[in-house]
# Entry
Amino acid sequence: MPTNDTEPVRTRRSLLDLLLGVGFIGFAASALYPVLRYLKPMASAGPGGPLKLTADEVGKLAKEHSIITRLGTGRVLVFEDAQQNLRALDARCTHEGCTVQYVPGDSVIWCACHNGRYDLDGRVLAGPPPRPLALYGCTRDPDGSVTIQPPKKGES
Ligand code: FES
# Structure
C-alpha cells in the first residue's frame, strides 16, 4: 500500500505560509498606522468648546491634586493649589514641548526636561521657557463636576 509522504510537508508548508502572511500583515499594519495617524490627527474637542472632566478624572484630581487631561489635540494640567482653588494651564512646556507638572510643595509648575519653572498662573520663573503657559478657565460646578474652558483666541 503506497504512503503519501508529501501530506505532512504540505501541512507544515501551509502553516508556515499562514504564519508568514500573518506576520506580513502585522508588519504592514504597524508601518501604516503612524502614517495614517499623521495624516488624520485626533479629533478636536470642538472649536474652543469647554471640556467636562470625567468622574474618574475628578476623583483622581481630588486624591492627587493634579491631573493631565486632553482637550482637542492638546494636554491640559488641572490642579488644586494650596488654597484649594482649581487652576488649569497648557501642559505643554513652551520651550520644547515636554509635559509640565504641578509641584505642590514648592507651589510651582515644573518642567523636568530642562528644569523650567512657572508660577501657578503660568508665568516663567526660571529656566529656558521663552513664554508663559496658556491659562485655561477652570470651574467646579455645583454638582461637583469640573469644566475646563480653553483660552480665548489671542490669549496665551
Ligand atoms: S522642554 Fe521644558 S524646559 Fe525645556
About this structure: The CA atoms of residues 87 and 114 lie 23 Å apart. The beta strands are 51-52, 66-71, 74-80, 86-90, 101-103, 108-111, 116-118, 124-126, 135-140, 146-149.
